[in-house]
Amino acid sequence: MDGEIQLISDGEGLAIIGDPADVDRFLAAEGLPSKDLGLRRLRSAFGNGAAAAQAGSEIAANSGRWVKLTRESAQLTKKYGLRKSSKTGLSTGAVKGHNGQIKGFVEFVKGPRALLTSPAALAGAAGIMAQLAMQQAMDEITDYLATIDEKVDDVLRAQKDAVLARMIGVGFVIEEAMTVREKRGEVDEITWSKVQGAPTTIAETQAYALRQLDAIAEKLERKNKIGDIAATATESEPKVREWLAVLARSFQLQDAIAVLELDRVLDTSPEELDGHRLGLKTARQNRLEHISRSTEHLVGRMVAAAAKANDKVLLHPTKSPAVVESSNHVVAGIDAFHARLGIESGRRSSETRRWAKAAAEARDRALETGAKGVDAARSRGTETLDRAGLVKGKLSSGIAERKRRRREVTEEPSEKTE
């Protein structure tokens, strides 16, 4: 790798920019899969005139690739010593040489032959990186919905609420806008006008789905009898899966709207792109936290129900395991949902206590109690026999004494007669 390449990380992905051959060699050496960054779309960030023409030629001569940050690829930010800007939140640096040695750090206008030498260009690259990260998340949600085999449109159609039904149409419009964007490379005024009202409908649907999950958690919390808990847990399992699917779809559409927004801002107000990107990032994180609170609350209720069922397994050998099984399915489903949306969670499934194990424990306790009872009975029996022997001895002594006295009384008159 004789040429220099520029590295930019926003915490979600890593952009590698430079000569196409150098970029390819770098990616091959690190063993990283990548996607096209789409550098050509940055031209609008440079304005007009000679500077824009020069920037355009530099962009045409260079390649940009994007890598999703995983545990392995995230190590590159440490390996190559990228520096983080407190203003933009981006980590930047440059690498040059056969051995991948650090040549110099790239900070806006600094750096040897750096491609992105202006704040606007760097903000443009960050905006495109954010779009790629969200598109990657959208693809993962599509895979998630296919994995759980939930037809979201069918779920929405089954509901009577008009807000849910409207989201089907909103989804069609957004997908159409994303298709046009892909073909044209931009979001024009007509395309943008079609999707401007979509965020309200999506937000209403998402809020409705969260309320449904909260209602399931509250209903489960109110149950105390194992029979009622078992019925509620079993009934909740498919409903939770359906509402998670609706949540996933709504989150996917919100990411799509954000992608379209960033394109629109890049084309119309590139100087505002960085602030808009950071605002969208904060809003997205807030949505994730809201979703996490509701789903974690439901997980807590399911785990509590499983614990209560485990405590009563001896009295309810069929219903208690059913509660734990339903709880495990719901918790596993929520964990899978969290993983697709990037929410950290590490729940462990509750372990069902088998009837035989519980019965064996009860038997052992009974035997232990019985043994103590036998010993106590023996002790009490011995004490009773001892007391009976003592009474019998005292009774025999009393009878003998009374007989002796009667004999003495009978013999005394005879002696006097003599």
Task: Give your account of this protein's structure.
The protein is of the alpha+beta class. The chain folds into two domains: 4-122, no CATH class; 150-353. It has helices at 20-30, 50-61, 75-79, 119-148, 152-157, 162-184, 189-195, 198-222, 226-268, 273-311, 319-341, 355-417, and strands spanning 4-9, 13-18, 35-36, 63-68, 83-84, 91-96, 101-104. Strands 1, 2, 3, 4, 5, 6 and 7 form a seven-stranded antiparallel β-sheet that branches. A hairpin with a 4-residue loop joins β6 (91-96) and β7 (101-104). α4 runs antiparallel to α9, α8 packs antiparallel against α9 and α8 packs parallel to α10 (273-311). It is globular. It starts with a strand and ends with a helix. Mean pLDDT is 77; it is low at 104-113 and 413-418.
Overview features:
418 residues; 2 domains; 7-stranded antiparallel β-sheet; disordered C terminus; globular; alpha+beta; 69% helix
Task: Report the β-strand fraction as a percent range.
Answer: 5-15%
Shape: globular
Described by strand count, sense and barrel closure, the largest sheet is:
7 strands, antiparallel
Instruction: Report the strand count.
Output: 7
Radius of gyration, whole Å: 39 Å
> How much helix is in the residues?
55-70%
Q: Indicate the low-confidence ranges by residue numbers.
A: 104-113, 413-418
Structural class estimated from helices and strands: alpha+beta
Secondary structure tally, helices: 12
Structural domain count: 2
Distance between the termini: 151 Å
Mean pLDDT: 77
Looking at how many chains there are and whether they match, the oligomeric state comes to single chain
- Written as H for each helix and E for each strand, in order along the chain, the element string is EEHEHEHEEEHHHHHHHHH
